[in-house]
Specification:
The chain is mainly α. The chain contains nine helices and no strands.
């Protein structure tokens, strides 16, 4: 994931400097990812409507590409543009769906659907942020902070002392803080 981030950011930096081929490579590389995000977030829409949103996202990226700061990660910027376009599509359709809704019916009818969508996005962003940690630190944060497991049971499961557990948790939380501030893993 870090390698992809660096490649995409490099292509976008080159594109901002006028390299049309780098821009084309960037768009070709990100489009399948954006399409997957749109499909996941707009499951209740038809495939054609989802593809319309993907095209809107690509246009927005083109129009707003100068808003991306080359010293920041590009993935969060792309995801934010995509998220806003999905929300715009939801608003435009006023909750109407052309596909059977199934489990999504409650969310579409719910007047607070945008809040639910934002909470889901926040959860996904948090999971992505935690995923930047090494696997052991990520599991430690998930166990203690998200699942609220007891320090005793986590220390026992990891075969370490509670003191060592506290130190590792402290380091993991400091790393997350650094990542959150800088946007860099």
């Amino acid at each position: 994931m870090q390698e992809t981030e660096e490649i995409w950011a490099g292509w976008m930096r080159a594109a901002l400097a006028g390299d049309g081929q780098a821009y084309a490579r960037f768009l070709r590389a990100v489009t399948p990812v954006l399409r997957g995000i749109v499909r996941a977030r707009a499951r209740w829409m038809s495939g054609d409507d989802q593809e319309d949103i993907v095209q809107e996202v690509l246009l927005a990226i083109h129009r707003k590409r100068d808003t991306w700061s080359p010293d920041r990660p590009i993935r969060p910027w792309l995801f934010a543009v995509t998220r806003h376009k999905v929300i715009d599509a939801f608003r435009k359709r006023g909750g109407e769906a052309t596909q059977p809704l199934g489990d999504q019916a409650e969310q579409v009818v719910d007047p607070h659907a945008e809040a639910h969508l934002q909470a889901q996005e926040a959860s996904e962003e948090l999971d992505a942020l935690i995923g930047t940690l090494d696997p052991e630190a990520a599991e430690l944060v998930r166990a203690l902070k998200l699942r609220e497991e007891s320090p005793e049971s986590v220390a026992r499961a990891m075969s370490i002392s509670e003191g060592a557990l506290r130190v590792r948790l402290h380091r993991a939380m400091k790393r997350l803080e650094q990542i959150g501030r800088s946007g860099l893993p």
